[in-house]
Amino acid sequence: MPLELPRLPYDRTALQPHLSATTLDLHHGQHHRGYVDAVNARIEGTELAELPLEEIVRQSQGSLFDAAAQAWNHAFYWQCLHPRGGGEPQGRLGELISRHFGDAKRLREEFDRVALGVFGAGWVWLVQHPNGALAIQATRNAGTPLTGQSTPLLACDVWEHAYYTDYQNERGRYLDAFWKIVNWDFVATQLRD
Q: What is the pTM of this model?
């Protein structure tokens, strides 16, 4: 069964002024759709065609891995954003962030430092290691925590197409906007027990 492009969990204009409808149209409607279409073209008629996207990512390599990982990363990223997001993480998530980073402000500072240090294209993640510890991880190109032991909690797309329309090459301004729309409720649901 072919994969489908997941719908955005909000209207294409809902993240304005932080991310414009034009950015979402290009990023979701063009780039994300392109990755889904590329996966479908490569798995048609193979045993992978019946697997969920996460398993395709884990079992593939080369150009199929690149397309599948990007399709999964983007679907996860959209869930990490919300028009009424931002603020401070609460509950267990807030406690874990305080334990591992000191507080949410220090988490953001470290996350931004890592994001600004990614040369070229990639992703920055808040992950939970198998021992329960939280950490920040950068992946290059289509890299994803799905191929390791850590659980992804939060993703930030630092490919230029994620922010160029709105912020040109000013990744720092994009990161400032990103924190205003982070969906902490979704992030909290990704925590392992």
A: 0.96
Entry field: residues in the chain: 193
Q: Where in the chain is CATH 3.55.40.20? A: 91-189
Residues of the chain with CATH 1.10.287.990: 21-79
Looking at residue 134, its amino acid is L
Architecture of domain 21-79: Orthogonal Bundle (1.10)
Whether the per-residue pLDDT at 15 is higher than 80: the answer is yes
pLDDT tens digits, 129-188: 999 999 999 999 999 999 999 999 999 999 988 999 999 989 999 999 999 999 999 999
74 carries a ligand binding annotation: yes
**Which residue type is seen at 154?**
L
Instruction: Give pLDDT tens digits for 45-73.
Output: 999 999 999 999 999 999 999 999 999 99
Q: Measure the CA–CA gap between 163 and 19, rounded to whole angstroms.
A: 8
To which CATH superfamily is domain 91-189 assigned? Iron/manganese superoxide dismutase, C-terminal domain (3.55.40.20)
The dihedral over CA atoms of 119, 89, 186, 11, expressed in degrees to the nearest 10, equals -80
Query: Which of 107, 108, 123, 110 has its CA nearest to residue 160?
Result: 123
Q: Is 161 annotated as a binding residue?
A: yes
Q: 81: which strand partners?
A: 182
Task: State the average pLDDT over residues 102-128.
Answer: 97
What pLDDT score was predicted for residue 161? 85
